[in-house]
């Protein structure tokens, strides 16, 4: 461990990526080997699902790496594009009308670039209030100017919620990369890795627990797997994983445990809420429409992060009284 | 030529960024054979969407129809339709001595594929309007050209009538199975209805 501490920041981060991609290579090799063997149908289905998830992890790891090597500007741009694609997917499924045109233009071409510009230039104070305060006021005004009173509140709520999740939520990920922690400069990548890892652990454990425990679902019309026990299982296990990972963060073990538990709890709620939204829109996966509109199910993958990142970011800022 | 190529790539990239421009070859594969694509018409973007959904190799030989009086009225419009899209120009005002389909027939004789919107004008919403007869005459004159129906979905949300800036919403173009040419005992009205039904049937596939 002490030899790890002796490495420079750059070397430590390189090591993180080497480990990450090493694990992914191993997983891919194993799954390719398993795929060579004939199996029963249920195994094939499970294997397909695993391979799909593995591909998604590969893509996100590669994006994470790209975000890191391209520096603050590149990271901001990359997550900006990401947010654009997620919002495009969300709006496609929300059936907005003709009179929403100007509100949507405002969302896509003003709010989104501005929010990410604020991240890139580290204006974290304005960045935190731009969407909840200013855009919250601006969208209904623009919408009212379009002169269509039909379903006014409903239409605005859809757009505002989409901006909140796809733009505001996601923009906190590059913000973590750029957050200036005293004595932790230039290591934002570890913080992002920590966040993504604990959120993923929480979801994985929750999924596994729901299969083992077979608890009565809390809201069966929304999700068959969500129950308090499984949620707690996810929170506790990701808290423990977070505590084990404390050495890559600026936190002490106890702090890491609480932060990890908080983030993964929010992430699981995020997935749960997204499921409710999908039920309402009449799709199971966003990616279901892949055969139709080219939606790739991006929103599905980023939803837990959209919920976890802002809570994580603001808790860290508040608790450690970071002013930057 | 080079400038037009770059502008073409940029335009196709923008169309894909805004709309996804996903092409779904439901009834036939994309193939370098002579075809007449016919589709529903809801927006100015319809042509760009079909063009961007085609594989790059097919774009150069698949040509749109452009109204001469509008698209040759300024240098830029003329340049875009001529250099990027290789459009076939037709006159909107009919003169007695000229067949309005003549430029289209010339393009088909030259071996190019065409994209036509047989409704003639942009529809408001929902089902397409009755088809104009041009498709029937072309199908009769060129029995060797396959007639491919296409349904363009969602594009009216990208740019509703009267708006200039497009909103990013995912769209798709669904290509159906080639339509049989007009039969010996099939009259014009029956054929055009059959063609329209082929386009409408793709709507169910797309949604």
Folded structure, characterized:
The complex is a heterodimer of chains A (324) and B (207). Chain A is mainly alpha-helical. Chain A folds into two domains: 1-65; 66-319, no CATH class. Chain A is built from twelve helices and no strands. In chain A, helix 6 packs antiparallel against helix 7 and helix 9 (228-244) packs antiparallel against helix 10 (253-281). The two termini of chain A are 30 Å apart. In chain B, 40% of the residues lie in helices and 16% in strands. Chain B has helices at residues 2-19, 46-53, 56-59, 68-71, 75-84, 102-109, 134-141, 155-158, 188-206; strands at 22-25, 35-39, 62-67, 88-90, 113-116, 146-153, 172-175. In chain B, strands 1-7-6-2-5-3-4 form a seven-stranded mixed β-sheet, with helices on both faces. The termini of chain B are far apart. In chain B, 40% of the residues are buried. The model of chain B has no long low-confidence stretch (mean pLDDT 87). The interface between A and B is medium-sized, with 19 and 18 residues.
Q: How many helices of chain B in DSSP terms?
A: 9
Q: Give me the side-by-side strand order of the main sheet of chain B.
A: 1-7-6-2-5-3-4
Distance between the termini of chain B: 39 Å
Q: Spans of chain B of 5+ residues with little confidence (pLDDT < 50)?
A: none
- For this structure, what is the CATH class of chain B? Alpha Beta
What is the CATH superfamily classification of chain B?
Answer: Glycerol-3-phosphate (1)-acyltransferase
Q: Kindly provide the radius of gyration of chain B, computed on alpha-carbon positions and rounded to a whole number of angstroms.
A: 16 Å
Instruction: Please describe the biggest sheet of chain B, giving its number of strands, its sense, and whether it closes into a barrel.
Output: 7 strands, mixed
Regions with little confidence, pLDDT below 50 for 5+ residues of chain A = 286-295
Anisotropy-based shape of chain B: globular
What's the pLDDT, averaged over the residues of chain B? 87
Which protein chains are joined by the largest interface, and how many residues does each one contribute? A-B, 19 and 18 residues
What is the domain tally of chain A?
A: 2
Main sheet record of chain A: none
Sketch the topology of chain B as an H/E string, one letter per element: HEEHHEHHEHEHEHEH
Radius of gyration of chain A: 20 Å
